[in-house]
């Protein structure tokens, strides 16, 4: 008999834990706020390759997330958003794949048909991901608004199209699949090492996180201009390749409102 879904039973998963980089014991389908650790997330995502490794060079999930955060920041500034609105949206972009530090990722065709059993309750893989994201949002004081989700999805899709152009062997199937996605970004992706990805991910987190004591204790305060230009450079490769409008002036005007 062919089952309509894959099922991981209580005995095989629910009663077991994983050991994280910082030596925490975490049950992957019961990840609570107290289990979330940014060092675990950064390290794990830096060592996980996008596209399940089917790309020309190692390209980490952590690097992808930093680039998504850059795109989100630029979009919010172009929409005239405030410093705090931009920080929060960019932080969501940075953490949008953070659940993969605890349950990794699986191909969408399998993900859509995978159920996990939790104490007799069947949950879809996506439900488990959503529960972990809820814990992450609570930990880092994030409010997921519809606008943030819309911009992060746009950024994620734009980066996917860019990655397909720069890192994935071209096939007829890939080109067909990418129809309807945003145009690739103008800057070419030249992947970082996993250590650089981890360091940049953590650096951007400490710049963006809402708790002042985290920002000041790790990196010190940065102006919005410095923060956004750092992100834009990572996204477009250099300031010269960024959009022509004077973003630095726009940012400074926003910060003074």
Describe this structure in words.
- The chain is 54% helix and 6% strand.
- The protein has 257 residues and is mainly alpha-helical.
- The protein has a single domain (22-212, 225-235), classed as Orthogonal Bundle (Hypothetical protein af1432).
- The strands form two sheets. It has a three-stranded mixed β-sheet. It has a two-stranded antiparallel ribbon with strand order 2-3.
- The longest helix has 22 residues, at 146-167.
- The chain is globular.
Tell me the helix content: 40-55%
Number of helices: 13
What would you say the CATH architecture is? Answer: Orthogonal Bundle
Termini Cα gap: 64 Å
Taken from the alpha-carbon principal axes, the silhouette is globular
Top-tier CATH class: Mainly Alpha
Q: Give the beta-strand count.
A: 5
Question: How large is the share of residues in beta strands?
Answer: 5-15%
Task: Specify the structural class.
Answer: mainly alpha
- Could you please say which CATH topology applies here? Hypothetical protein af1432
- How are the strands of the largest sheet arranged? 1-4-5
